């Protein structure tokens, strides 16, 4: 009789033509006693109370049910699936504007906008290390990127280790302008032993009756942060982190979350190559496989700058999209609001070449304009680099300049053995031939680590500096240092010049004595070196006379602008427009040339944004293309100012 009753009840499902309110597509059936994600129709049929269980699951004709889990309501046949698209970007490192070495985010902005047009249930997250790296972002302490993320509509950002490169005050400053929360469930205040005030453990996104829970965490990368920038917090990792994530997931599930995203600033392995396989044992260095037992549904990762899509033994996907805007992670999930089941249908990486094909969004230019005054320094021309230089050469030079500056400042009072320490360069890693801008060095050497004089024992001097197995330690020394190297007394005290990253790294055993000037970092020392001709003399400037420019322009078609740029020099005799800097210059022979727009050397800051714009009476050296305007007027178009007298 039981089998007959069950068969009869199953057949009754087909008799329902509607579910009362056919437009009701929320998840109320899940919350009021429908099948859990661990139940199935077979479980019901095999239970002693199968008939009553099935009857209760379809009793209310105002609720959708999907006992057979085919994505359609068993009563009205309407779809009970809501499809979500999840995108994650990790380790952007401030790569905001297009350069010769990497794409900016202008095309990516359009890509995200298009994704939202195609599916309104699109959620975008960041997995850390978003700010530090480029001139635009560093000179605004991350604000330009935070504003961009707000314009794009990010749901949240997980904090990474490099968010701490300027200290907690700047995280708090960015949190004040952010339109989204900063997540880090495991960043704890040392004094209060509570979660740091500028972050929260999770956030919930509610769309179309579905709740998405998003948990964020920073990995075990505390040692990757300069000690003087993170002294007020500590990170809970390992089993402590697992416990926190489990508890937060349970809380979110109890509050009705249908799907849990886990964004962690940590990743598989330490190399830049993508692993071909994954094992649960390998995961345990940063991710406890126990979290895949229903606590999280998908994991977006970061920190190791790898590109991979992996699936663990529990079926949970792990994605990381490289770094430096090389790509992003994308996953699609169907969420069944009738029975609570979820299915990840897509897990993939989107290469930058794919979104680079989109039209550039004006948002980036608008933000560049907003922060023009802050980022003007990036366009300062330092000089000329006559040959390609690897990053290792720049780091060796930094160590040498540390040593020289230290001897110059403290050499009368201390016998300085060496200069240098743990150093690294960032993308694009090397310096090409040609004009060098301050912004180029800002990208290569973005770290704001102040020079510092320290004392050290002979034993530590040998093990941590002279004989260190770490290839990222760069040192430089003179005759005295060379003598000490071969005659170290392990119990004696010696002196060296390093920076605050190395001085606060406890294993180095350094004691700080004095600091160099504020806001002078490795890149500033190299900038001064280049300005003094250290990397070769600038290109020979060949002036083009005003008559020659007029002759070239007269031979151009109407409204044509040359791709080549020309140097020209003259005295400003009138300023026709103080917004764009439309001026007329005159040479010593009285020849005149109209200049349509004056900009700084970067070409980004126009006349009205210059701190000291040239005025009538100033002699200026300019560089720009020639334009034949309308067939009747020859001018220099958008000239960059190289000097003013």
Description of the molecule:
- The chain is an alpha/beta fold and 645 residues long.
- It folds into 4 domains: 2-57, no CATH class; 81-373, 4-Layer Sandwich (Purple Acid Phosphatase, chain A, domain 2); 384-531, Alpha-Beta Complex (5'-nucleotidase,  domain 2), CATH 3.90.780; 546-644, OB fold (Dihydrolipoamide Acetyltransferase, E2P) (Beta Barrel).
- The protein is 26% helix and 27% strand.
- The protein has a 6-stranded mixed sheet.
- A hairpin with a 5-residue loop joins β11 and β12.
**In DSSP terms, counting alpha (H) and pi (I) runs of 4 or more, how many helices?**
20
What CATH architecture of the largest domain do you see?
A: 4-Layer Sandwich
Low-confidence stretches: 1-18, 20-61
Q: Mind telling me the CATH class of the largest domain? A: Alpha Beta
Strand order of the largest sheet: 4-3-2-1-13-14
What multimeric state do the chains show? Answer: single chain
What kind of sheet is the major sheet? Answer: 6 strands, mixed
Query: How many domains is the backbone divided into?
Result: 4
Number of β-strand runs: 26
CATH superfamily of the largest domain: Metallo-dependent phosphatases
Question: What is the gyration radius calculated from CA atoms?
Answer: 31 Å
State the CATH topology of the largest domain.
Answer: Purple Acid Phosphatase, chain A, domain 2
Mean pLDDT: 86
Structural class: alpha/beta
Helix % is 25-40%
Gross geometry: flat
C-alpha end-to-end distance: 104 Å
Q: Strand fraction band?
A: 25-35%
């Amino acid at each position: 009789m039981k089998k007959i009753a069950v068969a009869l009840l199953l057949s009754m499902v087909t008799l329902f033509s509607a579910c009362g309110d056919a437009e009701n597509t929320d998840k109320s059936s899940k919350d009021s006693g429908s099948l859990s994600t661990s139940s199935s129709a077979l479980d019901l049929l095999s239970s002693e109370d199968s008939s009553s269980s099935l009857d209760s699951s379809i009793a209310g004709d105002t609720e959708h049910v999907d006992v057979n889990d085919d994505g359609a309501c068993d009563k009205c046949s309407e779809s009970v699936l809501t499809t979500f698209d999840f995108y994650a970007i990790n380790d952007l490192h401030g790569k905001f504007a297009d350069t010769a070495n990497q794409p900016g985010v202008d095309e990516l902005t359009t890509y995200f906008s298009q994704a939202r047009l195609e599916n309104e249930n699109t959620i975008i997250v960041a997995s850390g290390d978003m700010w530090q790296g480029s001139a635009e972002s560093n000179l605004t302490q991350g604000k330009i990127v935070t504003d961009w993320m707000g314009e794009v509509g990010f749901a949240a950002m997980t904090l990474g280790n490099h968010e701490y490169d300027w200290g907690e005050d700047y995280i708090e400053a960015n949190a004040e302008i952010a339109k989204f929360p900063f997540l880090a469930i495991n960043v704890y205040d040392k004094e209060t032993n509570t979660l740091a005030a500028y972050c929260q453990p999770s956030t919930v996104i509610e769309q179309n009756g579905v709740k998405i829970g998003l948990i964020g965490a920073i990995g075990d990368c505390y040692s990757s942060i300069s000690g003087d920038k993170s002294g007020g917090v500590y990170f809970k990792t390992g089993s402590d982190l697992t416990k926190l994530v489990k508890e937060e997931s349970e809380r979110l599930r109890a509050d009705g979350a249908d799907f849990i995203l886990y964004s962690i600033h940590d990743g598989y392995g330490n190399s830049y190559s993508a692993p071909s396989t994954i094992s649960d044992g390998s995961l345990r260095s940063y991710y406890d496989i126990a979290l895949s037992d229903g606590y999280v549904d998908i994991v977006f990762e970061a920190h190791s700058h790898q590109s991979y899509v992996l699936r663990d033994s529990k079926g949970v996907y792990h994605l990381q999209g490289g770094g430096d805007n090389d790509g992003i992670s994308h996953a699609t999930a169907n969420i069944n609001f009738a029975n609570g089941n979820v299915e990840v249908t897509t897990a993939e990486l989107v290469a930058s070449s794919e979104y680079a094909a989109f039209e550039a969004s004006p948002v980036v230019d608008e933000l560049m304009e907003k922060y023009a005054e802050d980022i003007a320094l990036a366009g300062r021309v330092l000089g000329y680099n006559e040959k390609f230089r690897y990053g290792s050469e720049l780091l060796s030079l930094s160590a040498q300049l540390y040593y020289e500056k230290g001897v110059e400042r403290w050499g009368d009072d201390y016998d300085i053995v060496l200069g240098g320490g743990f150093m690294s360069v960032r993308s694009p890693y090397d310096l090409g031939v040609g004009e060098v801008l301050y912004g180029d060095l800002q990208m290569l050497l973005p770290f704001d680590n102040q020079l510092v004089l320290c004392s050290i024992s002979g034993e530590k001097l040998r093990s941590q500096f002279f004989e260190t197995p770490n290839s990222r330690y760069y040192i430089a020394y003179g005759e005295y240092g060379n003598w000490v190297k071969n005659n170290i007394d392990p119990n004696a005290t010696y002196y060296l010049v390093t920076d605050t990253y190395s001085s606060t790294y406890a294993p180095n055993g350094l004691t700080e004595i004095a600091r160099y000037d504020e806001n002078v970092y490795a890149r500033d020392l190299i900038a001064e070196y280049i300005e003094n001709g250290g990397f070769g003399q600038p290109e020979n400037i060949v002036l083009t006379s005003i008559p020659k420019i007029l002759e070239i322009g007269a031979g151009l078609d109407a409204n044509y602008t040359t791709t080549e740029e020309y140097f020209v020099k003259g005295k400003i005799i009138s300023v026709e427009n103080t917004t764009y800097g439309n001026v007329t210059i005159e040479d010593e022979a009285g020849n005149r040339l109209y200049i349509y727009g004056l900009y700084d050397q970067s070409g980004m800051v126009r006349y009205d944004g210059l701190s000291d714009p040239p005025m009538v009476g100033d002699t200026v050296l300019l560089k720009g293309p020639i334009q034949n305007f309308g067939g009747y007027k020859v001018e220099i178009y958008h000239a960059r100012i190289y000097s003013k007298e």
